Amino acid sequence: MSAPEKLYEGKAKILYSTDDPDILLSCFKDDATAFNAQKRGVITDKGRMNCAIATHLFQKLAAMGIPTHFIDQPAPNQMRVKAVKIIPLEVVVRNIAAGSLSQQTGLALGTPLPQPMVEFYYKNDALGDPLLTRDRLFLLNLATPDQVEQLQTLALRINQILIAFFHQCQITLVDFKLEFGLDAQEQILLADEISPDTCRLWNQLEADPEQRVMDKDRFRRDLGNVESAYQQVMERVLAQAV
Ligand code: TMP
Q: What is the whole-number distance in angstroms between the Cα of residue 185 and the centre of ligand 1?
């Protein structure tokens, strides 16, 4: 048995090698960052909570036919995943105007979109993860036209599944970010995580626009009660069948 080697440390997770070159260990951290790491902090128990939430959601998506990198969860904050080459795109799906969409277009926070929209951002911290046009995406060879088509289709399908799932949890899925990777056969797999760090989730049982926030916006916007919001999401998610 070779000792696990740290392959990559990101803002929220560390990736380690395993004895099998096709399998990596993803360890979820309690560290939280926002605004491209200009704001830093710790959300107590976030690693364990996000790992539990992401595990449940990956299992749900796999059961619905979405190919994912998830294998199993050997420890509360650890996930074994298939090794993939990450496509350097942040694929954002939006159902309701919020965040950068509201800031950049003037659409009022909370405006329902006539249909879900998919946006591609360049996963590049040095450049601040800029929003891409199709032409820029192809100029930079970030994905082929066929891959973009597949990503768009997968993202919308995942959105349908997650909207319904979160609705059962009495949570509204406002928007979220996905990352995908290519396996050894160049097949596209859903990767990274889906959690309150990467989604906007609004509590349907709260009318107040600040009280209803159950995601990382509580940390970004200093709304307080960050841990209890993540805990509430975890409890509601884990209470649902996969
Ligand atoms: P945005 O409104 O700031 O563009 O964010 C859209 C969604 O993507 C929101 O659910 C938060 C998520 N997101 C990430 O997961 N990572 C990021 O770096 C950013 C900017 C957003």
A: 29
Question: Of 82, 116, 134, which one is at a domain's C-terminal end?
Answer: 82
Walk along the chain (242 residues) in steps of 10 and give the mean pLDDT of each run: 88 98 98 96 98 99 98 98 98 99 98 98 97 98 98 99 98 99 97 98 98 98 98 98 94
Do both 187 and 117 map to the same domain?
Answer: yes
pTM score of the predicted model:
0.98
Q: Which one of 13, 35, 91, 92 would you pick to mutate in the ligand 1 pocket, going by the greatest count of ligand atoms within 8 A of its CB? A: 92
Q: How far is CA 170 from CA 67, 201, 214, 232, in A?
A: 26, 10, 11, 11
Distance 155 CA to ligand 1 centre (A): 15
User: Is the distance from CB of 192 to CB of 178 less than 8 angstroms?
Assistant: yes
| Radius of gyration, CA atoms only, the chain | 17
